[in-house]
Design goal:
- By secondary structure, the protein is an alpha+beta fold.
- The chain has 2 domains: about 1-215, BirA Bifunctional Protein, domain 2 (2-Layer Sandwich), CATH 3.30.930.10; about 225-265, SH3 type barrels, CATH 2.30.30.
- The chain contains 6 helices and 12 strands.
- The protein has helices at about 1-20, 35-45, 90-115, 180-185, 190-200, 210-215, and strands at about 25-35, 55-60, 80-90, 120, 125-130, 135-145, 150-155, 225-230, 230-240, 245-250, 255-260, 265.
- The strands form 2 sheets. The protein has a 7-stranded mixed β-sheet, sandwiched between helices.
- A hairpin with a 4-residue loop joins strand 5 and strand 6.
- The longest helix is centred in the middle third of the chain and has 23 residues, at about 90-115.
- The protein is globular and about 60 Å long.
- It starts with a helix and ends in an 8-residue tail after the last strand.
Length: about 270
């Protein structure tokens, strides 16, 4: 227990120092072990134990979750498990576009930190140019009578070099990679955490120009995708996003569909559109 407390204190001190060095005004809350940082963020928000903006990070996470109920791999020292809570204006455009805007912010800050070519795979993953998953994100909204807030969960593969082959789950082996192997840079999990917080807090700057900015980070652009919207499924070419972060999908008949909150996966036989 004493060793765990020491690690939590060390991480919290370094995390806070990295935020301060960036001039980022955000409380840093660190736990040794959590079920889910998003769940903890929601608990803190609902109990009014912390006031946005705040970030909650865990050295170990037992039930981290992504979209559609997927689990997220988390390993102390090798990955970041964190959620950032921010207040949002209660408008349809602000709330609907938040996930994509925050993802743009995080991807941009991670690019600057490690120098690797990173892209947003709509709606909430960060990929390498070669299509390996580096990070996953999940936004959960808390809407009250007078205010709205978002808890934005971020899982980042930071450095797998110290892991044995058996420590990496079969389902991500060959499909995921870490920032260190992509860039060879010298940075810590706390460096990555501070960069990600800055990215989420900077999401507001993309408001009103989400589609334009997304083009710089769009991993799916021009690729043939299988799209799902509820029970409906269709195929088309990804054409970026609109101002609300909805994926634009060009269909074979020349029409265009907007996908909001659904799923778009790369069609295996895709080829670049002319």
């Amino acid at each position: 227990m004493e060793e765990n407390f020491s690690e939590v204190s060390r991480f919290a001190a370094e995390f806070s120092a990295r935020l301060a060095a960036r001039g980022t005004a955000c409380a840093a809350i660190v736990r040794g072990c959590l079920d889910s940082t998003n769940s903890e963020g929601l608990r803190l928000l609902r109990s009014k134990s912390a006031r946005p903006p705040f970030a909650v990070a865990a050295l170990r996470q037992s039930a981290g979750r992504g979209r559609l109920g997927r689990r997220w791999f988390s390993k102390e020292g090798a990955s970041l498990a964190m959620s950032v809570c921010v207040e949002l204006a209660k408008s349809a455009e602000v709330m609907e576009s938040f996930t994509v805007r925050a993802g743009l912010g995080v991807c941009g800050e991670l690019r600057k930190l490690c120098g690797a070519e990173l892209f947003v795979k709509w709606p909430n993953d960060i990929y390498s140019r070669g299509g390996m998953k580096v990070a996953g994100m999940l936004a959960e909204l808390e809407i009250g009578a007078d205010a709205a807030a978002a808890v934005f969960g971020i899982g980042v593969n930071v450095d797998f070099s110290g892991l044995s082959e058996g420590e990496i789950p079969d389902e991500i082996r060959g499909a995921a990679c870490d920032l260190r192997s992509l860039s060879g840079g010298d940075f810590s999990v706390c460096d990555v955490a501070a960069a990600a917080v800055a990215g989420v807090l900077g999401a507001e700057k993309y408001l009103g120009r989400t589609g334009e900015e997304f083009e710089k980070f769009d991993w799916l652009k021009g690729r043939r995708v299988n799209a799902e919207a509820g029970a409906e499924k269709f195929c088309g070419i990804a054409r970026g996003v609109d101002s609300r972060g909805r994926l634009r999908v060009a269909l074979e008949d020349g029409s265009e569909r907007l996908l909001c909150g659904g799923e778009a996966t790369l069609k295996k036989d895709w080829r670049p559109a002319l």
